[in-house]
Amino acid sequence: MRQVMTQDDLVRVTRRIAHEILERNQGLDGVILLGIPTRGKPFADRLAAELSSIEDRPVRAGSLDIGLYRDDLDLRPRTRLGPTIIPDDIDAKTVVLIDDVLFTGRTIRAALDALTDIGRPAAVQLAVVVDRGHRQLPIRADFVGKNIPTSQQERVSVHFSEIDENDGVWIGEADSA
Amino acid sequence: MNDIVISGGSILTADGIESLDIGITGTKVTEIGENLEGARVVDARGSWVGPSFVDIHTHLREPGYEWKETIATGTEAAAAGGYGAVVAMPNTDPVTDNAQIAMFVAHKGAQAGFTDVFPAGAITMGRAGEKMSHIDEMWDAGVRVFTDDGDSVDDAAVLRLAMDYIANLGGVISQHAVDADLSRHGFMHEGPVSSLLGMAGIPAEAEEIVIARDIALVRLTGVRYHVQHIASARGVELIAQAKAQGLAVTAEATPHHLMFDDTFVATMDPDYKMMPPLRSPADREALREGLRSGVIDVVGTDHAPHAPREQEVPFEHAPNGVTGLEWAASVANEVIGDDQKRFFAAMSQIPAEIASIPDHGLALEVGADANIVVFDPTLEWTATRTRSMSRNAPYLGSTLRGKVLATMLRGDVTYSDDS
Amino acid sequence: MKHLLTTEDLDRETLEELLTDADEFYEVLHRPIPKVPALRGKTVATMFFEPSTRTKMSFDKAAKALSADTMAFSASTSSLSKGESLKDTALTVRAMGVDLMVVRHGATGAPWRLAEWLDIPIVNAGDGAHQHPTQALLDCLTIKQRFGSLDGLRIAIVGDIKHSRVARSDIFAMATLGAEVILVGPPTLLPLDADDWPVKMTTDLDSVLGSVDVVYLLRVQLERGGGSVFPSLPEYTARYGMTNERFARLKDDAIVMHPGPMNRGVEIAHEVADDHRALILQQVTNGVAARMAVLFHLLGGESNE
What we know:
The structure holds 3 protein chains of 3 kinds.
Chain A lengths: L1 E4 L1 H19 L5 E5 L4 H16 L5 E3 L30 E9 L3 H13 L4 E9 L11 E5 L6 E6 L8 E6 L4
Parallel strand pairs in A: 2-3, 2-4, 4-5, 5-6
Antiparallel strand pairs in A: 1-8, 7-8
Helix pairs in contact in A: 1-2
Chain B lengths: L1 E6 L2 E4 L2 E4 L1 E5 L2 E6 L4 E6 L4 E4 L1 E6 L12 H10 L2 E6 L10 H14 L3 E4 L15 H6 L4 E2 L9 H14 L2 E4 L4 H4 L4 E2 L2 H6 L3 E2 L2 H17 L2 E4 L5 H12 L4 E5 L1 H5 L21 H13 L4 E2 L8 H4 L16 H9 L3 H15 L17 E11 L16 E11 L2 E5 L3
Parallel strand pairs in B: 1-6, 2-7, 8-9, 9-10, 11-12, 12-15, 13-14, 15-16, 16-17
Antiparallel strand pairs in B: 1-4, 2-3, 4-5, 7-18, 18-19, 19-20
Chain C lengths: L11 H18 L13 E6 L5 H12 L3 E6 L11 H10 L4 E6 L4 H8 L4 E6 L5 H15 L6 E5 L6 H12 L3 E5 L14 E4 L3 H4 L4 E4 L15 H8 L3 H5 L6 E3 L12 H5 L5 H20 L6
Parallel strand pairs in C: 1-2, 1-3, 3-4, 5-6, 5-8, 6-7, 8-9
Helix pairs in contact in C: 1-5, 1-11, 2-11, 5-6, 5-11
């Protein structure tokens, strides 16, 4: 396993993306932040904290679990369902989906399906810590912390000290099975 | 030179147990001694040799239920289990309550040639518990055991009259000792397991009250009385008391009641469903002790075949009963332990006496009919097949200790272990 | 977990996982589109050999909310004599391409036999007086929603426990989740030989009323009542009914529950049934969520835990 982003890198990336979100949406009016559990949620919370600090008013992030929308339940292990907390009505709003790693794009596709069942947002944007390539669907991120080319066999791990032992991004060999 | 010599075994003679060879020619035992010669030799080293077993409680299902078993298939299974004679229960269709059916059953048994078949006669017409069956004409046709098995005779007045009648002839009344009212709505032993399963139970008292009442009538009438498939510790106590009082009371335990208890019913498998039901581990222990001590005189299989389709139903809907002819000896061996005399007493000698069956169950001696079984008491084997038409047996797939190697009916080898 | 047949062998971790997931499904059921595609393409068959409307509809709704297809088989007890065609019926339905079977049967152990004969997950929706595990899940979910956790709660189950599959399922699930369970009923309706059960037992409801957090009322089976297992219905109500007077003596935050259908005026007073502290309708809603959790666990792919 080799480290490709440090704790400081994560802090800088969080700050930059927060500003990009503000710039792109000309403020936070009508913007809803939703982290995708498991590790999209702490990233979303950090973005919300950064935005709170910049805008000098409380900003909260919700969460959107996609465990019930996956298209590969027969192929990969089922994980525990995480909470889905939508802080406000999403109709006609801009939803910013937030996740740790963008890889095949299937997680985001599932998230888009989930959003459709919850309401009708005016626009959906995507913020990720790492884009590692190898897309299987026509999906792209609007806000990217770092582009890291990887091979299919590698595994990218983003750690947040809220739920992991440390902060940072590592790349290693994928576990078998 | 003898036709057959059974050599090297431990044989049960009138004088006790001896390590000798046995020679058979034609239908008789012709020689007992050392280093005998025979055209065919059966190697009995390490085995017990004694009178072939007698089952005092078998359901052959013919006439009327030939999809479960026939006299031919049932007796073939019996021979494989070491039996030379079986008493066939009368809950056939039509019921064996007259001489014609009795003679039919005996004749079919003779035709099949695996064991002798001694039909039991119903006590009441149609086993309905109301009026006496054709006891006299059945007696003349050779019937000596009378039972309404499948049901108990509930009416004490009817039972008393039948007892008086049969006592005078010298027959034995074999009673399915389970109270109809207490058992009608239950499916298993009433106890902690039934409570957890929410299944209606049958308390052990359902047997106790029938046995206690019947013993009083035995005292009154002097009839010979045999309790079938005893399943409760209290029942064993009552038998012991009756014997101590000198009453002509005997009892049998089935292999399944000796092997299993109500905890097996938690599997929901109908192979553990029978009447009376499998009772508590403490009851089972009392049965085992009773068989060892002789309070329970004999092992009776209550071999009760049911077709596979009848078993593929929820537990409560399955018919009662399991088969057992091929495995009874192994179970008796495990319970009794290393006691050849008690083993043959329980499996052959006493059943023949109770059922008044001639030429069976006797210690081996020159001039007697060659009804012999060779049984290896230490051989471990797995029960994988059955010669019965039915497979409702909890033993299939189990490993048992003790196996029949050969069975002989009047000199004819009716079963030989091919492994 | 291959089947859900009984709560006796569900450990605490599995129970909590199912309840947590049920919470998520509760949220799904309150969305504008109360449906997720998780079990799209799967077929769930409900095989009810005993009459039932509520439980059947609840499972049907749960399956549909997960986008599964459903098939219903119902048999009045008179047309299937002695269950002789149970195996054949099940195999036939299976051959139509069914991925999971929900079974309710009057004979104890019927779902176990189906699990023996079929290669698909079986959910027990009630077998004889034995088990009804999804009822226990929705009951525990309701209590958890109200109190946060079952640890240390005192729960009285009142009524015909001896013949109740709901009671048996609840007892083990609630005890595993840390509750203290007290069985209350007339002596003829308390279970026999239950010394090993994780419960206390009493025939005196009034002695525990003031100290319990949950009173769980069982339906008086009217077909049994009056003269055979207890003297009469009014006498039952006097000793074991949740009357208005008894309701007033409960702790302020105690709740009343009932698996339904209720006999108003017998085991539960009319006004009590409609009180906000009687959570009967909440139980029903939770029933769909709990059953969604079960179906998702059994059909939603292998767990990685």
